[in-house]
Amino acid sequence: MPRYVLKRIAMMIPSVAGIIIITFILTRVLPGDPALMITGEQALPEFVDKVREEYGFNEPLFIQLWDYMKQLFRGDLGFAWHTGHSVASDFASRFPATLELTLASMAIALIVAVPLGIVAASKQNSIVDHISRVLSIIGTSVPIFWLGLLLITLFYSKLGWLPAPIGRISGNINPPTHITGLYIADSLLSGDLVALKSSLHHLLLPAICLSMSTMAIVTKMIRASMLEVIRQDFMRTAKAKGLSERAVIYKHGLINSLIPTLTVIGLQFGALLGGAVIIETIFVWPGIGSYVTESILSADYAPIQAMTLISAVLYGLINLVVELLYGVLDPRVRYE
Amino acid sequence: MLPILEIKDLKKHYAAKTGLFGRMSNTVKALDGISLAIEKGKTFAIVGESGSGKTTLGKTMLRLIEPTSGSIIFNGQDIMALGTESMRKLKTDMQIVFQDPFGSLDPRWTVRRTLEEPLRTHYSYSAETITKKVDEILEVVGLTPQHALRYPYELSGGQRQRVGIARALILEPQFVVFDEPVSALDVSIQAQVLTLLQDLQSRLSLTYLFISHDLSVVRYISDHVGVMYLGKMMETGPSEQLFSNPLHPYTEALISAIPQPDPDKRRERIVLSGEVPSPRNAPSGCVFHTRCPKAMPQCSSIQPEWLQVSENRYIACHLYNN
Question: Where would I find the ABC transporter domain in this sequence (chain B) (predicted)?
Fold first, then answer.
């Protein structure tokens, strides 16, 4: 198994290299002159030229790419001029926000989707099943930026139940002591109930918005694979053993139908990272998503490239973990 | 001798929706008025073509499928009157071995875990007792404790079916339904498994309901036979009598179709014309009249009654109506 893991990681190298090259080219194709963005539009042309030279923007593309590769090999992700920090330090300070949002969305999605999918499948064509199907269609088809704005209008503007959708915690409350960087975890660990309440309030809407499509897809997947498993002979055998209906579903049905679902959950992490770009912008969430948006708007190449690279590597690793989990769930899976 | 299990006028009807939006509804009579009695320690075989309702009958007897009407009397008790919980407990006395040894075991579970589950579900034995019981039952079906560590996909078809049998027998039931237990196995393995079943029956004094479409197997293993066609019982009788002197034209045709090992032996095959009609659209009167070589005018309009023709033989055919 360690051999398998190493092999899989080695296999990630070509795709990561491809991603580096493609994002490099794509960022250069984007409209906007970075030198002009750095200096400001009113700057003297000589000054703009000087900046262009200093940052190497006047070099041929392949030289720039080569320099970038060399820099990556040194472990340097570059400098984000629009924040004035290195990309690595920006990432370290912003990643926990995105991680918290993504984990919360995944948790919400699974808490709803798994039971809903199971009940929908075990009571096929019942009311619950119909509701689950309608919700799945809504979840996959509603654009999250629209849903986000709608939820803000309702819960903040109209009802006033939730605080202004800005940031991870209300401005007049101190963030919890930094332990993990996740506000919910930190405020629990340090017993800071004021911070916990405020950060939960801020997290709720963006996490629900972001969870919608994952919730819909996982519900559909669990329902479908559960329906398939329910028709299997060993389910009938379990019933013949004298197990109760519940025991049959949970002991034999659920785990067997989790295997295909797991694949989808792994893929959904990628979708969540993508969705975070939109959601973080709407909710002014200080994470990686809004960082990428800011970087694109200021034509700041280094952070765009670095965040794409990191997301790709993360995505690859998550899917590797999913593959290893197959082996835990299914004894027939062997790694070599 | 008192029967251990008796079923009376058992029916299982499915409402089949046909047409656009299922507006037209049609009744499929998977089981239509089946009655039979099984004596303790004997093997009652059910034969019939695909779609005749044999498997439905086997599952309905254990209420794995709920019958539409009729009664099932097991050890003097009508099990149709039992609630979910008592029915669940009754599984310790009534068990079933399924046809497909490949699909009927949970692929994620080792043999040991599969065999332990019925014990854990119904009893609160200690871990040692459970291990001991599993080892014992493995030995009974001709496997070793080493097999218990394996997963179903690591076993051959014959070994898997032995696990299926062990799984059914570990609760020490009195009555076991075998739903085509050997049809998925090679002929050489079939013989081994059949011998095992006979051996177990005499050792543990079990009562079997044996479902099969293979008449040679049925002749070999059964004491009593019931012949089914399109959800109806055509004829029942002691195995020897039924094979040597079939009364119903359908039974006659089936028996004439058994392959003879001796090529020189003269035989007359009764070849039935046509296909088995769709159960959605079962013929009126006697369901067999469309293919019966001895059909009479009343066969297409009047359903034959279930008649006793001799001490142990029952038949549904107008030829024997008085």
Answer: 5-255
DSSP conformation letters of B236-290: EEEHHHHHHS--SHHHHHHHHTSPPS-TTS-----PPPS-PPPGGGPPSSSTTTT
Same domain, A44 and A177: no
Interatomic CA distance for residues B184 and B132, integer angstroms: 30
CB hemisphere CA count around A7 (13 angstroms): 8
Say whether pLDDT at A104 is over 90: yes
Q: What is the ipTM of this complex?
A: 0.76
What's this model's pTM, rounded to 2 decimal places? 0.76
Q: Across the interface, which of A232, A242, A330 has its CB nearest the CB of B88?
A: A242
The CATH number for B3-17+25-320, chosen from 3.10.20.310, 3.40.50.12780, 3.40.50.300, 2.170.130.10, is 3.40.50.300
Reported residue count of chain A is 336
Question: Apex CA A184: angle with CA A211 and CA A149, to 5°?
Answer: 40
Say which DSSP state B232 is in: E
In a domain, A336, yes or no: no
* Rounded Cα gap, residues B9 and B4, in angstroms: 17
Question: Hey, what long-range contacts does A9-12 have (CB within 8 A, 24 or more apart)?
Answer: A9/A320, A12/A313, A12/A316, A12/A320
pLDDT for position B16: 73
**Nearest CB to B103; choose among A233, A252, A332:** A233
Answer yes or no: do A306 and A263 share one domain: yes
- Domain boundary (A86, A119, A153) is at A86
Percent of chain B at pLDDT > 90 equals 49
Do residue A241 and residue B106 have CB atoms under 8 angstroms apart? no
At A155, list the tokens.
């819960």
Domain range for A312: 90-329
**Last residue within a domain, chosen from A70, A86, A102:** A86
